[in-house]
Amino acid sequence: MNIKGYFNDSCNICRAEINHYKKINKSITWIDVIHNNCASRETNLSSKELIRRLHIIKNDELYKGLDAFLIVWNEIPRYKFLSKLLTLPIIYHIGWLIYEFIAIILFYKNKHLLNKDH
User: Rounded to 5 degrees, what angle do the CA atoms 14, 27, 90 make?
Assistant: First the structure.
């Protein structure tokens, strides 16, 4: 199964988290959306959309935000419980709100990256 993850390696928090996942699981190919011109073409998303959220392509389907994290966590045995827990309806919606709140803060913190050529 081929899984690709698209993340902003220029964001310190994003990089730290993805580097953690890279160390414990090799089944996901991680792509830095800032330094990889193919990311927009592969996902059909703009640079703004790509740095706004985590994205995962699994089985030719694109997942974003919390749904992308659910895919990642489901691939890592020690985090599988998070994937299961966050699929419960009320918990999913609360998790989605928390993710979006954090993601918007990180987006505005890193928005200056959109002005750079890549």
Answer: 60
